[in-house]
Design a protein that fits this description.
There is one protein chain. The chain is globular, with a radius of gyration of 21 Å. It is α/β, with parallel strands linked by helices. The protein has 2 domains: 246 residues, QueA-like (3-Layer(aba) Sandwich), CATH 3.40.1780; 86 residues, no CATH class. It has 10 helices and 17 strands. Helix 6 crosses helix 8 and helix 9 packs across helix 10.
Length: 378
């Protein structure tokens, strides 16, 4: 069973701190005392030869709402964020009765006019047809005009204009996520300047965060939870750095960690089967016999950019291949995210970290404070 704890509602951050880098930072290293700082001073807690990897996915304003009626677009059935009008999407919706009866809503903000209609689909309980003008505009551009920031459900307020920038990382580049990679929300140009001055290298990956990030564990057996697939891309420069870097690799957030670890398994499957799988399976680390050495798996990735999907499910017992350090916020009980953190530092350590955070007034979840966790002391 994944670790559980009581999270008082008042400890969930409804708003972010300003400026971003004033968020509190809790530092954990094995066999050392927990200590804290503010995120602005991150450079003080990273060795000079650190490779810092971050997720540059951009949040799409995928929540469409009129009063109590709303849809959160989650995954295309026939379409995509960058394609023109005439698409079919899956989504989270309410109220169910309105949409199951074929409900239709229209949003108008000249020159944009968007209509969503619930539609039957042979393989889904419900799908949504989207039509808009100007028809040539990509969907992401239309949503920038009429959509709302998809704040997570535990934030009990309406999205504000400020959230359009504050619920994005400052380095967000590629639209495609319906939730922010929140560990990166604390970075500012001032933080980057200090990292650069220390000589710390940083490089992007891209993983588009999907609806699965909101789904809690509903089974007593965490291995029975279904992980949703998410698309990711990794540039050739980042792949080269992973092959040649000799210092610690620190991932900004669980999304970055899952992507980086997925690369090892892509290489392992290519060595085993002679080709990349269509997606990284959730339990490849339990099913693939005799996984290859890290250097062989990374070499098998080749020199071209990687574009793939992952369902990698990291639970206690997972053998981390690449990640030595993890920057991550404080997560919900009974979530896959806290399961990953427990896998990373162990049950005793995660209890110590979360007990300290709760007793010392840290703010939790997406807009909350953060931590720097190490698998070994540096």
């Amino acid at each position: 069973m994944l670790w559980e704890y009581d999270l008082p509602p008042e400890r969930i951050a409804e708003w972010p701190v300003e400026p971003r880098h004033n968020a509190r930072l809790l530092i954990y290293q094995p066999a050392r005392t927990l200590h804290e700082d503010i995120f602005l001073n991150l450079d003080r807690h990273l060795p000079e030869n650190t490779l810092l990897l971050y997720n540059d996915s951009q949040v799409v304003f995928a929540r469409l709402r009129q009063g109590r009626r709303e849809v959160l677009l989650t995954e295309p059935v026939a379409g995509g964020w960058h394609l023109p009008s005439g698409q079919i999407w899956q989504g989270l919706y309410r109220p169910g009765r309105f949409w199951r009866k074929g409900g239709t809503l229209t949003w108008e903000k000249p020159p944009v006019r968007l209509t969503i209609q619930a539609a039957a689909h042979p393989e889904l309980s419900l799908a949504f047809r989207l039509e808009w003008e100007p028809a040539a505009w990509p969907l992401v551009q239309v949503l920038n005009e009429v959509g709302e920031v998809p704040l997570p459900p535990y934030i009990r307020r309406a999205a504000s204009e400020a959230d359009k920038t504050r619920y994005q990382t400052v380095y967000a580049h590629t639209p495609g996520s319906i939730a922010a990679p929140t560990a990166g929300l604390h970075f500012t140009e001032a933080v980057f300047a200090r990292l650069t001055e220390k000589g710390i290298r940083r490089l992007p990956i891209t993983l588009h965060v999907g609806a699965g990030t909101f789904l809690p564990l509903r089974s007593e057996n965490p291995f029975a939870h279904e992980m949703h697939a998410e698309t990711f891309s990794v540039r050739a420069e980042t792949l080269t750095a992973l092959r040649t870097h000799t210092g610690p690799i620190v991932c900004v957030g669980t999304t970055t960690c899952r992507t980086v670890e997925s690369l090892y398994w892509l290489g392992a499957y290519r060595l085993w089967q002679g080709a990349f799988p269509t997606e990284v399976p959730p339990f490849c680390w339990r099913e693939l016999e005799a996984p290859p050495p890290l250097t062989d798996a990374l070499d098998a990735l080749g020199s071209d950019p990687i574009h793939s999907r992952t369902r990698l499910y990291i639970l206690p017992g997972y053998p981390f291949a690449l990640t030595q350090g993890l920057i991550t916020n404080f997560h919900q009980p009974r979530s896959t995210l806290i399961g990953l953190v427990q896998a990373f530092i162990g049950e005793e350590a995660i209890r110590a970290v979360y007990t300290y955070a709760l007793e010392h007034g840290f703010r939790f979840l997406s807009y909350g404070d953060t931590s720097l966790l190490w698998r070994k002391a540096f």
